């Protein structure tokens, strides 16, 4: 009989569920995709129901259920912190305690109440061990160093370990209140963005600024040690005891108050973003270098929210001592559900991992000197994530029924014609919403729930940011590139399947920048085309790359290949199928609602094509737009 293991993460942000069957990840999804509440922290009832349905079982058939962290240890940390800082933190204490005393301390009962029929034990993992398990066990490596970095779990804020076969050992931890993730979040807050949500905006804003505050940060706020650990001066931070991340003392040091959310971005915020990004990259590099020295491993696995910093990841790959790195695509707390489930299978039950040899697909890349690869020469590759396509899929019959019920106007095309049709639209600079196959697990859209555009178009970035995504104009878009062509266009020769590595556009693909552009500051730099694919080239010539293989996602690959045949360009723009403030779409109804609220030209639901101009006129509720004031 199969062994069914359910992993759960919840009650902080990005709640999720994952089902592992005999060591294979069968299903995983975040609760926000079903409830349409971004970063939903509630119990992942819908995600659990989906996972069980995908496997065709009920909760009564589960063999093991596990939660990704230890609530009692986290409660201990909160009590010790409040006690040590009293009377500061009294308001925060009064707000936190009712939730803990009423719900979180009784988590076993709460989980059991949500799993009708399950009578077994509820296991509790440790937060950073769950992250580490999510990084190592699905990776393509038989053995590797493992580094996790985030805000805080129970006490740990970062960890270093090593994985060998089914064994995973953590040998070094950084503990609260000293935390690279909380340091970055503090500056996210100071720059006027939402904590646990806006950190990637800071990363995207950084190239517009100068590192003017690096010395100030190192002198007053943080001490960075050679092993990548850090000490933070708590006089400048309030997250340990207050309701905010920073207070008056940091405002005095920086020379002004924190930016108010949605107010005008200034050069100060850009310079702060650049400064904290450089600090973060320095810490990431030092921590990973230390992990290499202590573990002796050739390869590295990463997880935790800081591992979503793809600029830092790119530097680790280029400048660090490891041959290869692999990053868990659901690196944040959602991935903890996957990690704790995998940990039960391999560590608690002692089951072996499938080796790279038994998978028969992993080979170390060996490119030509010029970085160019022919299709037949692309090294084979596999991991345990199935491309991170682990969410729901909708059949042709289900989509046809949604179209009928909604009164939408759609044209059905044969499945083998979809790629050519989409490529034709993209080559005509139309913006296409694509919903096909299984929904992605993690924060990145990877071709299952994506909005696509022409990377060659100088106007595409502005069009997609302002008229499609309703978000800040400075935000960069990612290139999706055929794997065999990545070395021809970018300073990257390897895999980046989950859009978690940044590399520069190759010099021979760049455009000369007018002399007057050197006089531009901040966001003014945005409108200067910098390469032959300007829609995906950031102001510092970098790009957040997704490499695409046909064996992972055939239709998505075929679309890019068809676009390449038409244009000679094997790259398209890929951004998540949502608007600012909403989760990525899940269902056909989500897709159509987002399609009609924006200026997308075409919607593709598997092999159904919907053109915006053909849809029936209807009066839409646009009250949802009121909160989206653009910078």
Question: Describe it for me?
Answer:
The protein has 631 residues and is an alpha/beta fold. It is built from 20 helices and 21 strands.
Q: What's a concise summary of this model?
A:
The chain is an alpha/beta fold and 631 residues long. It is built from 20 helices and 21 strands. A 9-stranded mixed beta sheet has the order 13-21-20-14-15-19-16-18-17, sandwiched between helices. The chain has a 5-stranded mixed beta sheet with strand order 3-2-1-4-5, with helices on both faces. Strands 8-7-6-11-12 form a 5-stranded mixed beta sheet, sandwiched between helices.
Q: Please tell me the overall pLDDT.
A: 90
Low-confidence stretches: 366-376, 626-631
What value does the Rg take, in angstroms?
Answer: 24 Å
- Decide which structural class fits the backbone: alpha/beta
In total, the number of strands is 21
Gross morphology is globular
What is the terminal separation in angstroms?
56 Å
**How many helical stretches?**
20
């Amino acid at each position: 009989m199969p062994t069914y293991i359910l992993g759960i993460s919840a009650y902080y942000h990005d709640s999720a569920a994952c089902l592992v069957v005999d060591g294979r990840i069968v299903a995983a999804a975040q609760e926000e995709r079903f409830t349409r509440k971004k970063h939903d922290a509630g119990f992942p009832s819908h995600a659990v129901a989906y996972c069980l349905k995908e496997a065709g079982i009920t909760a009564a058939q589960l063999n093991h259920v596990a939660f990704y962290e230890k609530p009692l240890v986290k409660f201990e940390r909160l009590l010790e912190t409040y006690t040590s800082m009293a009377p500061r933190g009294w308001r925060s204490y009064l707000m936190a305690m009712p939730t803990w005393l009423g719900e979180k301390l009784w988590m076993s009962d709460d989980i059991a109440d949500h799993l009708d029929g399950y009578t077994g034990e509820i296991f509790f993992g440790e937060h950073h061990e769950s992250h580490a398990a999510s990084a190592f066990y699905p990776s393509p490596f038989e053995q590797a160093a493992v580094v996790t970095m985030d805000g805080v779990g129970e006490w740990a804020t970062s960890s270093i370990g090593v994985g060998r076969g089914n064994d995973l050992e953590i040998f070094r931890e950084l503990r609260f209140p000293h935390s690279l993730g909380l340091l970055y979040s503090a500056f996210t807050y100071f720059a006027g963005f939402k904590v646990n949500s806006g950190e990637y905006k800071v990363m995207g804003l950084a190239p517009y600024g100068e590192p003017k505050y690096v010395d100030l940060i190192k002198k007053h706020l943080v001490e960075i040690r050679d092993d990548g650990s850090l000490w933070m001066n708590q006089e400048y931070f309030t997250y340990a005891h207050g309701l905010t991340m920073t207070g008056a003392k940091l405002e005095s040091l920086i020379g002004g108050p924190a930016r108010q959310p949605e107010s005008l971005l200034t050069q100060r915020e850009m310079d702060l973003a650049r400064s904290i990004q450089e600090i973060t990259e320095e810490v990431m590099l030092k921590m990973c270098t230390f992990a290499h020295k202590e573990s002796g491993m050739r390869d590295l696995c990463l997880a935790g929210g800081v591992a979503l910093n793809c600029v830092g990841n790119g530097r680790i790959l280029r400048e660090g001592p490891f041959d290869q790195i692999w990053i868990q695509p659901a690196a944040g707390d959602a991935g903890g559900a996957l990690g704790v489930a995998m940990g039960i299978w391999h560590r608690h039950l002692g089951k072996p991992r499938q080796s790279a040899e038994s998978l028969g697909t992993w080979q170390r890349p060996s490119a030509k000197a010029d970085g160019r690869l022919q299709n037949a020469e692309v090294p084979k590759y596999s991991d345990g994530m199935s491309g991170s396509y682990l969410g729901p899929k909708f059949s042709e019959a289900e989509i046809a029924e949604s179209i009928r019920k909604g009164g939408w106007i759609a044209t059905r095309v044969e499945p083998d014609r979809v790629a050519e049709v989409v490529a034709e639209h993209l080559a005509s600079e139309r913006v296409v919403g694509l919903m096909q196959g299984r929904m992605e697990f993690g924060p990145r859209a990877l071709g299952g729930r994506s909005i696509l555009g022409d990377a060659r178009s100088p106007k595409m970035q502005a069009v997609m940011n302002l008229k499609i995504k309703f978000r800040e104009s400075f935000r960069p878009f990612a290139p999706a590139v055929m794997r065999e062509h990545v070395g021809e266009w970018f300073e990257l020769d390897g895999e980046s399947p989950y859009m978690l590595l940044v590399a520069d556009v190759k010099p021979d693909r760049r455009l000369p920048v007018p002399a007057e552009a050197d006089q531009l500051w901040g966001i003014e730099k945005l409108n200067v085309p910098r390469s032959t694919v300007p829609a995906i080239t950031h102001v510092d010539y970098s790009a957040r790359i997704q490499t695409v293989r046909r064996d992972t996602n055939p239709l998505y690959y075929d679309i890019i290949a068809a676009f390449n045949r038409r244009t000679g360009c094997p790259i398209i723009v890929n951004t998540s199928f949502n608007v600012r403030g909403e989760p990525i779409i899940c269902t056909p109804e989500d897709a159509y609602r987002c399609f009609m609220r924006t200026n997308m030209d075409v919607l593709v639901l598997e092999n159904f094509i919907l053109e915006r101009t053909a849809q029936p006129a209807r009066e839409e509720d646009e009250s949802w737009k009121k909160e989206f004031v653009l910078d």
